[in-house]
Amino acid sequence: MPTPTAASRDLQREFSLLRQELQADLQRLTARLDKLENRFDGRLQLPTANLATAHSSDASPRSGDSPSENEMKIDVQNTDLSMVQLSMVVNNGFPPSQPEIEEPQDEQDGLVPFEESAWSFPLVVGLAPAGPCDVTFAIILLLLNLGMQVAFSVIILDENFIGSPFTDHIDNARRTRTSIAHDYTHMDLAKTSLVSRVCSEDGALILSTPQANLIQQINSFLSLGLDQFQPGFFQVGSLLSMLCILLWSLCVYKEYRSIWLTSEAVWRIPRSKCTLFRDNEFHTISTGRLKILLFTYVARAAIASLLLGAGIRWLAQTTSISELMLNAVSLNAILDVDEFLFAGFTPISIQLAVRTLEPLKMKYSRRRSQLETWSLFVLLVGTITLPYFVLLNPLGEQMVQVKHELCAGNQTFVVGRSTETQMTVGLVTRHPQEASELTVTELAVEEHKFNGPNEVPYLINFMETDVHFYEALGRDMAAEVKNWGLCIEKEVLMLGVFFYQDPLITPYSDLMLRQAATSLGTADVSRGCAGLKHLCNDPNARLLRMVCGHTCGCTDPLASAWHKVTAQGCIAACSQIAFDAAAATCQDNIDSENWEVFWNSYPDVMTAFWGNNVTESAVYPVMLSVADAMKSSGCSALMDPQWQAEPGVNHRWCEGYPPLWRPLAWQCPESCGCKDITPLPAYCPSRCAATSNETR
């Protein structure tokens, strides 16, 4: 019958293999014993003459010697002694004093265990005492493991997962800097530009947060300060990235080594038509099973190679220090999918079969070990140097370029474009380090942020509707002044006037006074307008001149004419008081002190008005000549044709210039020719009309 015949053939084959193994073991044991005896023989070859002389002298009869002592003559040449006896003779009858020293062996035995992994299923499927369901589910888990690792590899290699190259950030930084970073609409209440806030890692940003996060990552990665653009030798991010790349590479190299050792051990199993598996040990392996195992090992190696390259590339493009370690751990989890499936889903019968597999025996020579050591050393050095010079060093240079494009140079300015004039105008902003002091608007928010809805605001003028709100934002000073029909200081703030302590107007006037003082850098309004008089001639004191028109000279015809116009804050009602006082006479009448102040401040006023330093202009010498002539000659200089007009705006001094100064004809009506002009111009005092008629 065929079944007993097949069983008998298996038994014969098994006995033959056991006999061959026993013979091989005996041969190895005999060879080692022969080498051991030869080594002792070489150590015990002593000169025969010396031994004979020594033993003959010992063997000469002496008086008192017993016959047994004479029989102890030893002829080394004719006596066949065992190794131990001969050793005792050499040591005068004592055992050897030195321990046996074995020479290093050329080969070493090792054991290659099988991994508790889904990749080990092909070893035991069909051999383990498992049912069809267990075997089928194990095959499904093996395919699932293969599919998951291949899918992870494809995903990591995909460009959408890796992301765009870091070089794209260079162009993005350049466009951000030129398009929105200096836009005046993105300036905050502290008057700092958006680019300054981004580059200072401002945590209160709600715009350009990707750029701010990128700058923060670059500074952390390269260990740069806020104003540094050249990294030093020590770079935290580069070092951590190298460690993560090395960690990930070691994980893959561990996989490589496991694949190589296991495949080599399996390859050395004797092959036959049928796999002989007994007592949890492979004695022979079939060609079909061997091919399946080799396919799985090749698949493992291919997946590990893909993951190695993709993982190194991914880690080298990770600029966030906090994400580097997480990415490295995530990559390692992909390699452990096979172990997770084995530990969590593998049927018990398959698990036990894999765990109880006997390790395969392997022999390793010293030459192979040395060669492997050198190979591993070269691999370790390459793993450290290649990613650094190929990936990390260029990444660091690209990071420096990104920061240079976004943060280098001047950050403290914003620009805007006027659609009416078609001009691009700029404004110098504050550096974030200078923004420790609150601006007027920030101070207004700080003062009112915890107030209730019914509390009186300290610096904020609240509007009832959004229409009034946006209208107030769009008004200039001339339009704001036109809303007032009375001179605030003389008719509201002074003691005893009609609107003094008016419940509606007075709180609003006090609010404007506080706003005016705060905008000029002081918060002390305890003395009212008198305590702020020294600030009246400041070009930015428009609101102060509006509230304190009398103190600031809007009602005085002899005061310095600079800024005494509605565009600079003087209310028309205050200016009318000054005009009426000037109309009382038609004679030149100047206050020498105010006249000197007017012409001494001439260059500074024009510089503030134009927004450019006029001292660098070709017109500056002409300005100095005009000022010198006016200070030396007084009103009479206005009669000279070369001094009659301001050279910058080409407007006559006598007529005034509504954006900047009121007519000097109020102080110098005679020199301005008001007596000789008919009909009388509006800038001339009304008294001159009567004088002109009397003269006629």
Automatic annotation (TrEMBL):
**Region (Disordered) residue spans:** 48-71
Composition-biased stretches, type Polar residues, lie in: 48-69
From the UniProt record, list the coiled-coil ranges. Answer: 19-46
Is Acetylation included in the keywords of this UniProt record?
A: no
List UniProt keywords, sorted A-Z: Coiled coil, Membrane, Transmembrane, Transmembrane helix
Where, by residue number, does the polypeptide cross the bilayer?
A: 135-157, 232-253, 292-316, 328-350, 371-391
Write the protein's name.
Vacuolar protein sorting-associated protein 11-like
Source species taxonomy: Eukaryota, Sar, Alveolata, Dinophyceae, Suessiales
